[in-house]
Design brief:
Growth Hormone, Chain: A; 17 helices; mainly alpha; 82% helix; 2 domains; 370 residues
């Protein structure tokens, strides 16, 4: 039965991840429709993150206190936002649709974590790891399906499909009852916990490395190594495939050893080292270092997120909501920082040194949380 909840949680996360990843692929036809430039496109996407980050903690708290019907309501909101976005004719309408989608999907990830953790006794980190294959999994799906799909259908239909999927997911969410056990502590006590905020910082720095590497990997392979578009695309796909394998594998290791903190810390240290060494890789061995990088970029996620999810029983969604709010900022800060280094300096060794700072600080912070 546990694996059914993992599958449902994966499906619930799918719309919010797909919205973000599909945007980059549908960006040009979308901008052609509204008559905007890439700066406008970036501002529209920012609307999603404003809603998503703003709603994370309050909606996660509602999931803990009111149950999964809150998420069913969020699915309806995501569908409405997708419909609004698909019907947009200018940047204001598009930004409004993105904001609604971001706000409405703010607690889908944290609720999915709660769903999996509440229904897992043995191999909990494995279950969390399988849930978190949604991230690299959606990268593979969107990259493999969307480019060819847009050759015979409009970008609007992509988001109308998201709306349809979201509405279908409402049904099972209305039927699931959340645990009604009394929380280990009050929500106020949780929000004032220094340890939770420190764990959230670990997550932020880990994602610093993940998003820094994954967002610009294709460009680095093209510009630094001179790969063809096809060869660079194959290596990025390899990065994603190893990411899919990494999260359940590290979860299994942490469950068997019963050392989630040590497994997370070890994988972060190895991730830090691999980032420093990557620009020194000979051209013929890039596929190997990309594979290692893809595995390590995602490997720390399942043991770390299980630690956060179990921090206070009964407040799983709220704990993850705090961590998710803090760590989401990395998706905004790091790509901009990396882009600035590429644009103004063009120094790839410095680039990967900056990216490596994230997992290095994550490992150090986690080590101090003994």
């Amino acid at each position: 039965m546990k694996w059914i909840y993992v599958a449902l949680g994966w499906a619930v996360i799918f719309p919010e991840l797909f919205i973000r990843l599909a945007y980059g692929i549908t960006l040009k036809p979308f901008l052609d429709t509204i008559g905007g430039n890439y700066l406008v496109g970036g501002a529209v996407l920012a609307g999603f993150y404003v809603g998503y980050m703003g709603g994370n903690i309050p909606f996660s708290y509602l999931v803990d206190s009111r149950g999964y019907r809150v998420v069913a309501g969020e699915m309806v909101g995501t569908a409405l936002g997708a419909i609004l976005f698909s019907a947009s004719k200018n940047a204001l309408e598009a930004g409004t649709g993105m904001f609604v989608m971001g706000l409405a999907s703010a607690a889908t990830y944290t609720a999915s974590m709660k769903l999996v953790v509440e229904h897992s006794n043995k191999y909990k980190s494995v279950a969390v790891g399988l849930l978190e294959t949604a991230g690299p999994g959606v990268v593979l799906i969107s990259g493999a399906v969307l480019p060819s799909t847009l050759s015979f259908t409009s970008w609007q239909n992509v988001y109308l499909t998201v709306a349809a999927i979201s509405m279908v997911l409402c049904v099972p969410l209305l039927l699931i009852h959340a645990s009604r056990k009394k929380p280990e502590s009050s929500t106020k006590s949780l929000l004032l916990s220094g340890r939770l905020w420190s764990l959230s910082a670990v997550r932020f720095f880990g994602l610093w490395g993940l998003w820094g590497a994954s967002t610009w990997l294709y460009s680095v392979l093209r510009l630094y190594y001179g790969f063809s578009p096809i060869q660079a695309g194959e290596d990025v796909t390899l990065f994603g495939v190893l990411g899919v394998l990494a999260v359940p594998a590290s979860g299994l290791l942490s469950d068997l050893l019963r050392e989630r903190r040590k497994v997370a810390m070890l994988t972060l240290i190895l991730f830090f080292s691999s980032l420093l060494l990557f620009p020194l890789t000979p051209r013929d061995f890039v596929w190997l270092t990309v594979s290692i990088l893809g595995f390590l970029a995602f490997a720390y996620r399942s043991p770390l997120d299980t630690i956060i999810a179990e921090y206070r029983k009964g407040l799983t969604a709220t704990s993850m909501g705090v961590a998710n709010t803090v760590s989401q900022a990395s998706q905004i800060v790091v790509p901009i920082m990396v882009g600035a280094v590429l644009t103004f300096l063009g120094n790839y060794v410095l680039l990967f040194t900056i990216i490596s700072i994230g997992p290095g600080l994550a490992a150090l912070t986690l080590w101090r949380l003994r």
